[in-house]
Amino acid sequence: MAATTAASSTDLIRAAGVKVTRGRVRVLDALNAARQPLCHGELELQLASADEASLDRVTLYRILDSLVACGLALKAVDTRGVFRFSAAAARHRHVDHVHFRCIDCGGVFCLKAELPPPPKLPRGFRLQQIDFDLRGLCAECGTRAA
Amino acid sequence: MAATTAASSTDLIRAAGVKVTRGRVRVLDALNAARQPLCHGELELQLASADEASLDRVTLYRILDSLVACGLALKAVDTRGVFRFSAAAARHRHVDHVHFRCIDCGGVFCLKAELPPPPKLPRGFRLQQIDFDLRGLCAECGTRAA
DNA sequence: CCAACAAACGCAACAATGTTGCATTTACGT
DNA sequence: ACGTAAATGCAACATTGTTGCGTTTGTTGG
Ligand SMILES: [Mn+2]
Ligand SMILES: [Mn+2]
Ligand SMILES: [Zn+2]
Ligand SMILES: [Zn+2]
Question: How many C-beta neighbours within 10 Å does residue B125 have?
Answer without folding.
Answer: 19
